[in-house]
Design goal:
Two copies of one chain form a homodimer.
Chain A (H helix, E strand, L loop, with lengths): L1 H7 L3 H9 L6 H14 L5 H8 L4 E6 L7 H14 L3 E6 L4 H13 L4 E4 L14 E3 L11 E2 L1 H14 L4 E6 L5 H12 L6 E6 H8 L7 H6 L4 E4 L2 H13 L9 E3 L16 E4 L1 H18 L20 E2 L1 E4 L21
Parallel strand pairs in A: 1-2, 1-3, 3-4, 5-11, 6-7, 6-8, 8-9
Antiparallel strand pairs in A: 10-12
Helix pairs in contact in A: 1-3, 5-12, 7-8
Chain A binds a DNA duplex (16 and 16 nucleotides) through helix 2 and helix 4.
Keywords (chains A, B): DNA-binding, Transcription, Transcription regulation
Protein name (chains A, B): LacI family transcriptional regulator
GO molecular function (chains A, B): DNA-binding transcription factor activity; transcription cis-regulatory region binding
DNA sequence: CTGAAAGCGCTTACAG
DNA sequence: CTGAAAGCGCTTACAG
């Protein structure tokens, strides 16, 4: 910057004003300065600016587990949204543990992030961290900033399966402590209606009770009349699908299978997986917009009366989920399959 | 910092020296200063430090496509390695395009990263960017810093299949312009030996010629005697596996299937997928170590004679890949399957 | 062992 | 429209 100023015989204040386009500099000079900057390959120093303005223009993204297959979508969407808003994204992996999550957050704070997007570990509340935080979890979580409407997503799959004529369902969750999964399953149940039956399996519980590679007992369920299996994740749906196929049960002719999240492999398998897609780009935009608004209003400083409001509020907190109907749900199960009377859950 | 200095009646220089543990301060004072710092919840300003030292302690990670299913492993490993070395990680997605890759790199540079880890878009060479760069591609790529030994990985799968008694192979690649994939396929071919046959399909080429959802013609290949199908990615292996299963072809009884990368779903499907696993943690450590060494030697400044050496060199440039034998390769194809004489590729 | 001083590169009132 | 000055928070020679 001083190089440009010296080369042109102007003050660095003028260079700064010209380059930041604040309009206090004559058009001619702005042109000259711009040209010189290009010529010298001038790259403004973030450190200098950050020190002066007190803002780093960097956001932190805290993920519960980077190796989660949904992470790519999230990271990509956040990076794009942040980048469009002029922010960089620093990532931190909390590796499933709450303590690590706290450490991850501290590390980001130390690096001077202006705000944080946190995908919390199931049911974690984030303490006061000294900067605005956007939480992306599920609408039923207190403090949630934006997220997909997982409940509605569950309802959509269930309704789809009901419309197909299914009456006997197996719902597969993983972790009963997960808000997201509970919402998805809750949504499914809410849409199943009176003359259907369903059973819910939580894999984590099952594995805990019967060991790591416990059988899901899929065949038994099918023999007992289940014709639709709806999982809270494509990963589980994939497991179900391939297990059924290996046992010679035809999908979707004999059993319909659905997942969640539209993971990368879902359209690729045969039969392709019916699933529910979330508009991560929109969620990210809303989260980042809320964060940026708070940051740029400067409200986040501890100044104001009590503790600064921690988690930020977005314009819309629920983003609709889209049902992707593909081959694995297929046509209705043959209607002559007798409806097993008995307990309706 | 000045708060601590004032509270204790010492100079900020002393606070700085005490906190950074340079040993120029008496033990007593160090203790007092540490306590005061904790008490005040002092968090050093990165901006101040960066401005003074000229280093941000942040590294940039440039990914060809965040939505790649391998990305979680990479990002996680890099984040851990960087964090252990005292660096943060700023991500940037080059979204497949070379121009976007260049933009992504510029953005990171503008944010003042000290170094870059680049997973390059197939066959891209990185120009002079003004900071050290570690490239993670494949050993056969010029400028490669560290990577898995993809060729060896390919050789390992092929050898495994040969040992199982297979003699007629279908190799499935995606993009013939990818160095990684070419190395994997090359390695496979190198290990197939004399009395075997093989055909290679490149999906991108196929799709280009026959449309998006073109059939792989798997059944035909199997009818023509193929008993082992080896793909360059678990994603393709999964496609193959489910297509075969849907057609009633038993895996592994009739055909063995193998993939690459040990993606998250690979151990979960039935039959579980035989694949090749890379030690991303080690690759990340080597890449980051090489980068940090270069950064901390300060060699990267443009000072020295010609242009500063761009891509950095690691202690080891090839990291071994590990074969994960699982159910999908299974026992040898029945040996009474007649070996179709004819062209040996 | 401790401190006073300078300066990293910016931006922002404030004067002119 | 342009410039001189101050200061953001740190660290690093340099004195003492």
């Amino acid at each position: 910057m001083s190089m440009i100023a010296d080369a042109l015989g102007v003050s660095s204040a003028t260079v700064s004003n010209a380059l930041s386009g604040k309009g206090r500099v004559s058009a001619d000079l702005v042109d000259k300065i711009r040209k010189k900057a290009d010529e010298l390959g001038y790259v403004p120093s973030n450190a200098g600016r950050a020190l002066r303005t007190g803002r780093s223009n960097v956001l932190g993204l805290v993920l519960p587990d980077i190796s989660n297959p949904l992470f790519p979508q999230i990271a990509q969407a956040m990076e794009t949204a942040a980048s469009n808003a002029g922010y960089g994204v620093l990532i931190a992996d909390s590796r499933g543990k709450v303590t690590t999550q706290t450490q991850a957050i501290s590390r980001l704070i130390e690096r001077g992030v202006d705000g944080l997007v946190v995908i919390p570990r199931r049911g974690t509340r984030i303490g006061d961290v000294g900067c605005p935080v956007a939480m992306v979890d599920t609408p039923s979580t207190p403090g949630n900033t934006v997220s997909a409407d997982h409940w509605e997503g569950g309802a959509k799959v269930a309704r789809h399966l009901v419309d197909l004529g299914h009456q006997n369902f197996l719902l597969i969750g993983h972790d009963p402590a997960s808000n997201v999964q509970n919402d998805r399953i809750g949504g499914m149940k809410s849409a199943l209606g009176r003359n259907t039956r369903h059973t819910t399996i939580w894999l984590e519980t099952l594995m805990h009770e019967r060991g790591e590679r416990a059988s899901l007992g899929l065949i038994d369920h099918v023999q007992n009349g289940v014709t639709a299996i709806a999982a809270v994740s494509d990963l589980h749906a994939l497991r179900v699908l391939t297990e059924l196929q290996t046992s010679g049960i035809k999908v979707p002719q004999q059993v319909s299978v659905t997942g969640f999240d539209d993971l990368i492999f879902s359209p690729v398998v045969t039969p392709s997986l019916t699933t529910v897609h979330m508009d991560m780009a929109r969620i990210a935009e809303l989260a980042i917009a809320a964060l940026v608004r708070e940051i740029e209003q400067g409200k986040s400083t501890v100044q104001n009366g009590k503790a600064a409001k921690q988690t930020v509020t977005a314009d819309t907190s629920k983003v609709s989920m889209e049902l992707m109907v593909r081959a694995s749900s297929g046509p209705a199960a043959s209607p002559d399959a007798p409806f097993p009377t008995g307990e309706t859950l």
